[in-house]
Amino acid sequence: MPEFTTAREVISFGKKFSKEELVRSMRFSVAAEYEAIQIYELILEATDNTHVKAVVQDIINEERLHAWQFLDLLSELVPEEKAINESGAKENKERK
Ligand SMILES: [Fe+2]
Prior knowledge:
The chain is built from four helices and no strands. The chain is an all-alpha fold. The site of fe (ii) ion has 3 residues, from helix 3.
């Protein structure tokens, strides 16, 4: 089974995923989207070029959407994980 610690491992896997491998690839993809957001936010902080900042901000917004889309797919593949996520969100609201 691939480690899914780099994008290359996902690309070079070379066969169709089992369900477990698909789940792991979704988790990796969520992490990759948030890593991209971190990198793009550093670009925002590092430039005063307003056009670049505007485009990069749009890209960040898209990456946020992608992260949630992968999380939604993960919930679809692992319904019990959705229940855990909802439980965590409920706990957070109770602590406000
Ligand atoms: Fe993305």
